[in-house]
Amino acid sequence: MRVRAPVAEFLFVSSLLAASAMDGSPEEAGPRINVLRIEPRGSDVLIRFHLEGALNPELARRIEAGLETTIRYDIRLYRQFRWWFDSFVEGRTYRVTVTFDPVTREYVISETMDGKPLRRSTTRDFSIVAQTLANGENLLVFRVAESKPHRNLYVSMRATFDSGYLFAFIPVDTHTPWKKSRRFDIRERARENPERTPEAP
Question: Rounded to two decimals, what is the model's pTM?
Fold first, then answer.
C-alpha cells in the first residue's frame, strides 16, 4: 500500500526527533512540549520549541489520506510576582496546517499567527512536514509595547490537536500540559537615529 512508505519514513523521523529532545522528564507520558526557549531581542520575544510524542503513524495516515491536519499552539505571556498571582499580559495562537495534494504528490504547509497568514510552502519531503508540525525556530510571538510590563516575564505554551485523529490507542486529552519558559526581562530598544532633526512642515 502507498501509505506504508510515508508511515515508515514518519516513524524514522519521529525517532530522530525524540532522540534529539533532552528537556522532558522520562516519567511524563503522552504528547508534551518538552523544549521551550526564549530569546528577547529588544521588545521582540522569539521562541524555540519542540513538541514530543504527538507524531505517530495515525497522523501520517491521516495526512496521506488528504485530510487537512492542524496542530494549534496557544502561547501566553505572563508577568511573575513573588508574593501574588501571576498576571496575564497577552496571548497568541500559532497554527500549522498540512494538506496532501494527491495530484501533485506534494504536502501543502500553511502557518498562521492569530489567523493571519505567516508562511505557506510545499514539499514532497515528509520529514519537512514532521519538522514543521512539531518544531518552531526563531518564531516571533510577542512585541512588547512600552505600556506593558518589561520585567519578570515568562511564556506558557501548549499544543492542541484535531479531535479524534491523534489518540486512537491512548485515552488522553486532546491537548498537552502547559509548558512554562524561564523568566526573562525586556530591554528597551535603542532609539533609532537620535540625532535626526524633525522634517520641516
Answer: 0.76
